[in-house]
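hi support,

uploading two proteins for the ticket. first:
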Amino acid sequence: MTILLYDLVGHDESRPFSPHCWKATMALAHKGLDISTAPTRFLEVPAIEGGVSKTVPVIRDGDKVVIDSFAIAFYLDETYPDRPTLFGGEGGKAMARFIERWSQLTIHPYVTTAALVDLHAMQDEENASYFRQSREQRFGKRLEDVAA
């Protein structure tokens, strides 16, 4: 059975850009599972699987829908124990959680501000408008000023 991954894209469907979706993609590849992707733009995310999540990644594996890259990794390890492990046990899970949290607090803020203008440029007109409005509201200033 093929697992469906909803993957965040801009106007070019061949260039997914979400690091969280990349984590899910790499976990699926490590497990050696067959996948298909559903290229998904920002404004399409709320409609995924009947509105199950406000963010991606989201996977559908048969009747099971799983959201969040870490929850997806846990699900894959539990559901496919005959495939290579993603964590190697509880210690690996704890270390992965630590690294994820550290990177979200240390690396992610810098990468986000450095990439904002480029991410905006990758969107079609409607999604670019949404992206600008939502990010400028979040940061309290224009995208170009955040990046500067």
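and the second one:
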Amino acid sequence: MSAELRLIKEIIQPKMVIEGAGVRLLRSFAPSRENRFDPFLLFDHFAFNDPRETPLAGFPTHPHRGIETVTYMLEGSVRHRDSLGNMGVIAAGDVQWMTSGRGILHEEMPHPSAAGRVDGFQLWVNLPAALKMSRPRYQEIQAQEIPLLEKDGFSLRVVAGEFAGVGGPVTEIAAQPIYMEVQLLPGARFELNLPAEHTLLVYLFEGQALFGGTQPVTALRMLLFEAGERLLVETGLASGARFMLMAGAPFGEPIYPYGPFVMNTMEEIQQTLAELRAGTFIQPA
């Protein structure tokens, strides 16, 4: 018996929003109590490619609690530092997977490539209740550490999870995610098997492709898929495609988001705000 094919449940057109110090973002979805994309909370596509946007804005110091933030760079770089003394640069092809846990303060400031471009994505992944107050940690992965797999007509970079026996360098994530960048040449075919109950999202940021054998989609779009065991993506002879793919196990827990915090109850958010006011939000490592 063949695996049940994943069909498109919803096509989302990203909307322009302003965050940080005037940063323009294309946002596909944001945290909400409906928690429709469990375990994923937010997906932003940021780019600073219009000369009228300079000087580059960024994300001055801000807090997080209860989530994981994932930065994936296509071009340019982001300099970061935090309240625990960590600092560094996320360059083109790099990934930073930050587990904020019980709390962290950090800033992220973009820097353009030689061509004057900054382009990348930020994904927020939820933490289950049992880990929301865990110790903060980073997994910073340089481009050369991310496996590149090239097969007939497509290539992919595996950040987390596994494909064709190739595992990504980001590990020990509660949502058991798959996170990868996939590129298809014209006339190519890509298939992925995954647990039927896992949430599956695809952000198509270049080109056009047919998903699930039924519907061609053109960039820029975020796709949410129905339950099923197999994703099928095909490109026509006229165009290739490039997309970010994310899948993970839902936690099935209620969430209460408030700005940069995502907890399970309103009382936990109130406690978080009280700690910020009292100066006890950041705890010693």
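thanks. also noticed: The chain has one helix and 25 strands.
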